[in-house]
Structures are given as structure tokens and as C-alpha cells.
Amino acid sequence: xxxxxxxxxxxxxxxxxxxxxxxxxxxxxxxxxxxxxxxxxxxxxxxxxxxxxxxxxxxxxxxxxxxxxxxxxxxxxxxxxxxxxxxxxxxxxxxxxxxxxxxxxxxxxxxxxxxxxxxxxxxxxxxxxxxxxxxxxxxxxxxxxxxxxxxxxxxxxxxxxxxxxxxxxxxxxxxxxxxxxxxxxxxxxxxxxxxxxxxxxxxxxxxxxxxxxxxxxxxxxxxxxxxxxxxxxxxxxxxxxxxxxxxxxxxxxxxxxxxxxxxxxxxxxxxxxxxxxxxxxxxxxxxxxxxxxxxxxxxxxxxxxxxxxxxxxxxxxxxxxxxxxxxxxxxxxxxxxxxxxxxxxxxxxxxxxxxxxxxxxxxxxxxxxxxxxxxxxxxxxxxxxxxxxxxxxxxxxxxxxxxxxxxxxxxxxxxxxxxxxxxxxxxxxxxxxxxxxx
Length: 438
Ligand code: ASP
Description:
With 438 residues, this protein is of the alpha/beta class.
């Protein structure tokens, strides 16, 4: 039985916190595989090491050299080593890293060095084996994770070792060059390692005591979720509940490995467990959580007898594919369909081109654009089995005097997504929370 422990940026922010992390690992023999993020913010207004590193790369791009931009990174790591009171010299590793950044000249390589340096330090502090993610985490030609190859390499590298430390966030592409996951991707590294070593548990250590039923910036002290299924988590984290990277579920889900969100600053708190559907027992709550995102655009299309026109939807979607625009939701009626798209994809002249393209492709009776829409997802396994849930949801929104611009009930009946105006977003979340949790 072995556990994988991934520590996020705030758990690596300074030497004292890393000492607390050491205690956490040493208090449980099963905690044998450790994945670390780059040091995060120490206080509000501080800069994450990864952001400092992206600034380093910008300097290289603009001026051809790092100049002074690497100095704050060095200062961060020097002070961590000092606070740790550890008896080792980081200077040589720092200057080698600086040279490599200047040699490799890649954004991904530069950004990955925060995790790299942090893992080198944590491995020293724990007396553990450092395993470079570059040698064991691989991406395919198309940029996706090469799971099978990575699982094999990780298992091989860990064989016979007691404790192993991996830098999160990166691996290597098919040419052996460092490539990162998207931001927050150390969570994915943790999941990949958990799968590779067939862990009994993937512990994800953060600075919060688990998932909350909604954003605490909107509702005061919302309820903590004790237990949640992978599917619910996927919906909530995709919709902006950002405790865990939304892609980190896939590697562990296949192997039925549970995840537990833990708080480094309150290690005795129970946290939230995330379970495969087969092991998940609904708590009795109808709704597990509410989350959402702002800034979507809805393109509403109406055409008589749309339902009998073969290939109508395909022609509309081809216009978006041509412009390389992903669609979030496609709610539809007999003669109507709407396309819900993140507004960021429609900047510049793109929106105009899309409208012209749809006009030419399907000659609709009506085409209308509704901008500044927020999506709010209400998620819970209990929703499918309890009669009247949608009525309660829509009544609560109506009672708050909020107009609903779009409704999409996922076919899994696990979630109902509504589109409201951006300015109604916070009130909408509050109204739903009050209806189901208060
Ligand atoms: N350090 C990276 C970031 O800031 C990755 C991570 O923390 O997971 O996005």
C-alpha cells in the first residue's frame, strides 16, 4: 500500500512550510511518492515562482538574454534553503539552471524550472530519490499525455526506492524537449504517478480543507463537501471550482484510485474524498455543489423545419471548426439551436466571420448574438432521482428576479447548466445555494 502526495505551490512557499510537509510525509509510512509544485505566494501580492519564470522567458524573447530577471527566482530558492536550515549548497544548481534556460530558450523549459528546483530541494530534505519528470513523463506527437509509456517509466524508476520525489507540471515531448501541462498541471503529474505505482490513495495537499459547495468569495462559509464522485468533480472543476486541475481525474479514474484533498496547514482536517462512482455513496444531499464561469457568448439560430434538414447542425459546427473555435454547449429545440462559446474565442473579427459563415452555410430565419453570459452549473448525483429538482432550481432563480438565457441539462442528469447575464452571476449562485443548502 502506497500513497502519492502532491503538494501545491502554497505548501512549498517557504522553508518553514516545507518543514511541515516533511513532518506530514514522515508521519505515515505509506506516503512514499511525493510530487511538488513550484513555490507559490507567501502573502497576497507576492508572485508565484512560475510567474517569475514566465517573466524570465519574456525577457529572453525580447532582449535575447535573461538580464536581471532570474535574480528574484534565485533569491526565493536561497531563502527557502536558508529557512530549512539544510546543510547543502544550492548555488551551483541555480547557476546551472540559469545557463540551461539561456541555452534552451523555450517557455516550457523556463517555466518548468520552479518545479525542478523545488523537487531537488525537497528530495534532499527528505533523503529521498529525485526523479526528473523529463525522464519519465512523456507526451505524444499531438501533445497529449503518453500514459502507457509514462506509467512504465515511472514504475521502473521507482523500483526498490523507499521515497521518491518528482517535480510536477512537466515531462518531455517526442524530441526529448521539456513540455509542460497547462497551468496547475502538477495535479496531473500526481495522478499519473498514482496510476503508475498503483497507489492506494492520491493525496492532494493544498491550502484549503477540501472542496466547498460553492465559491466562498460569493457565499459566506459554504458547506464543505465530504465526499464527491469523479464525475461530479469533473463537472465542478471544469466550471471553475479550481481546487484541482480538471484533467487530473483521468489517469486515476481508470484505475479506481481515490483522491483526497488535504490541507497542509491543518493536516488533521478530514478534507474531501473523491471516489469512483462504484465506491461513491451519495450523502443524501440532492445537490453536491454549484460552480460557474463568466464571459460566454450565445449564438441563437432559428429555422423552420430545422429538425428535418439533414446535416443542419453539422454544417453550423463546420463553420466553427473552420475558425478553430470550441463549443461548450449546444442546447436545441425542434426549430432552434444555440451555440454557447467562450467569448475569448470570438475576439477581433471572428464573431462577424462566424455569423457570416453560418448565414451562408444554412440560411437561418433568425440568427441572434447574446453576449456577456455567465454559465452556472448545479451538480449532484441526487438530482436525477429526486422529482422536482429543476422546478426548485428555476423557481429559486426566478424568485431572485434573474432572467435565464439558456438551459442545458446534461444527459447524465448529473448537472443542469443555466446561462444568465454576467451581472446576475453572483446573485444566481447565491439563490441556488440558499435553495439547496440553507
Ligand atoms: N507551477 C505551475 C503553475 O503555477 C504548475 C502547478 O502549480 O501545478 O501553474
